[in-house]
Amino acid sequence: MKKLTLRELNRVSVVDFQSMKKSPVVVVMDNIRSALNVGSAFRTGDAFAVEKVVLCGITAQPPHREILKTAIGATASVAWEYHEDTIRAIEKLRNDGYQIVAVEQAAESKTLEEFPFSENEKYALIFGNEVTGVAQPVMDLVDHCIEIPQFGTKHSLNISVSIGVVLWEFIRNRKPV
């Protein structure tokens, strides 16, 4: 089997990416400690053509050396915005017609494969702090909560892994952009 070269992958340019139709999903990062995780979110957001990444609270913002290290240029292609307060960011997204969905372990959460991503809805997916998760005041405002099933001894996945898993399931259950 021949591995494809970068040229053979025939990827769109940054300019073309910026103007193309995006998946109706926004990644919201609620007080993320690691700039490396932020960079990974941008790179994964580029791979799945998300509308934007919303950085909140203590979450680092581009240009930041560690974000740029893991994003590998995706901060130039993926739209982003910063909000000091996650709650205000969520209120804005709700007013813009997004379903607010936390990715968290909670009493009423649905497992990822059980969640019915609708073809007619836009989603804001909230990923929380690496230690404390999505803040409770934010959880109080969500429309839905989804949880990634896990079978080992740990109770969480790295946020960059979680973003990849959830976005893949979102895209897998919808028509491609």
Descriptive overview:
The protein is α/β, with parallel strands linked by helices and 177 residues long. It has one domain: SPOUT methyltransferase, trefoil knot domain (Alpha/beta knot), CATH 3.40.1280.10. The chain contains 8 helices and 7 strands, in the order ααβαβααβαβββαβα. A 7-stranded parallel beta sheet has the order 3-2-1-6-4-7-5. β1, α3 and β2 form a beta-alpha-beta unit. α3 runs parallel beside α4 and α3 packs parallel to α8. The model has no long low-confidence stretch (mean pLDDT 96).
Give the strand order, joined by hyphens, for the main sheet.
3-2-1-6-4-7-5
Percent range of helical residues: 25-40%
Gross geometry: globular
* CATH homologous superfamily caption: SPOUT methyltransferase, trefoil knot domain
Task: Report the uncertain regions.
Answer: none
Give the tally of β-strands.
7
Q: State the end-to-end CA separation.
A: 29 Å
Using only C-alpha atoms, the radius of gyration works out to 16 Å
Overall average residue pLDDT: 96
Biggest β-sheet, characterized? 7 strands, parallel
Count of discrete structural domains: 1
Task: Report the CATH C-level class.
Answer: Alpha Beta
